[in-house]
Amino acid sequence: MAYIDVITLPDAKVYLRVDDDLTEDDTQIIRMINGALSYIEQYTNIYFYARDKSYNVIDSCVKVYDYPINSEVSTYTEKEILTLHTNYTTDETPLFTLNIGYVDVDDIPQELLEVAYTMIKSMYYEKESNKGILDSLDTLSMMTLNQYKRFII
Asked: I want to staple 131 with a disulfide (CB 3.0 to 4.6 A). Which of 32, 33, 98, 135 is the partner?
């Protein structure tokens, strides 16, 4: 799966009110879909599609802030589960790999998808402005992102 499977090009075009016949912007819209979903993943640590991700082991411990965790790829012993992260212990392996991200698109929180659509709309219609992504989001979208954010540094 990829970002384009989470928000499809036809769905984005309907949301943007772009005719199906207009294909000259398709590549640009796909980049916007990828950019919006990637940004939300980085901001919240909630992953939209399943993939393997490796983590560094420090003092035989791995702190995982990413969500959802589907399965282990490398062997581990679960040590304890905390509110914001899960600690894993390993057998001196320098890298530890988990499968993270939603397996089914229908399980993704709708609020996060709405924020993604809002971001895509802003990128598409306000591409000439000098606004950054966060500057173009409304208060409700920022509240939603902050609500789903897995940790604060």
From this structure: 135
Residue 150 CA: distances (Å) to CA of 14, 26, 40? 31, 32, 11
pLDDT band (50, 70, 90) for residue 153: low
Tokens at 74, concatenated: 């490398």
Contact 50, 5 (CB under 8 A): no
Mean pLDDT of 111-134: 84
- Is the pLDDT at 12 greater than 60? The verdict is yes
Give the dihedral of Cα atoms 44, 46, 52, 55; nearest 10 deg: 40
- 70-77 long-range Cβ contacts below 8 angstroms, 24+ apart: 70/98, 70/99, 70/100, 70/101, 70/103, 71/98, 71/99, 72/97, 72/98, 72/99, 73/97, 73/98, 73/99
Write the single-letter amino acid at 96.
F
Does residue 136 contact residue 127 with C-beta atoms inside 8 Å?
no
Beta partners for residue 58, in sequence order: 61
Question: How far apart (Å, rounded) are the C-alpha atoms in residues 40 and 65?
Answer: 14
